[in-house]
Write a structure and sequence with these properties.
There is one protein chain. With 108 residues, the protein is mainly alpha-helical. The chain has a domain of 51 residues. It contains three helices and no strands.
């Protein structure tokens, strides 16, 4: 009766190497997907900016003047909103959570 001695150290090493290759391949695929997503977002953002600039340039002078005035008037409000960005996001999240909890409470 002979017992099976089990896998040899070289077989363990080979299995570990294969497992590491699989994990590395998955990681590379995930990183590539992130990079591609960022590139797509950048390309779309650039296209939108270009089209917006073309539309503004093609607009009649009174419309261009109104757009400049609106941008000037909105700038302080945008700066203020940027200062409180985190607080606004936390508040919005809290309101959503409250909404869902109330909705769940009413349905039970």
């Amino acid at each position: 009766m002979t017992e099976n001695p089990g896998p040899t150290p070289s077989e363990h090493l080979r299995a570990d190497t294969d497992q590491a290759r699989e994990k590395l391949g998955e990681t590379v695929d995930q990183l590539a997907a992130k990079v591609q997503a960022k590139e797509r977002v950048h390309a779309v953002k650039s296209t939108i900016s270009d089209k917006t600039a073309q539309a503004k340039d093609a607009a009649p002078p009174p419309v261009q003047h109104a757009l400049e005035q609106a941008g000037s008037a909105a700038a302080p409000a945008l700066d203020k909103a940027r200062q409180y960005n985190k607080q606004l996001l936390i508040g919005a999240a809290a309101l959503l959570l409250l909404f869902f909890l109330l909705r769940r409470w009413r349905s039970s």
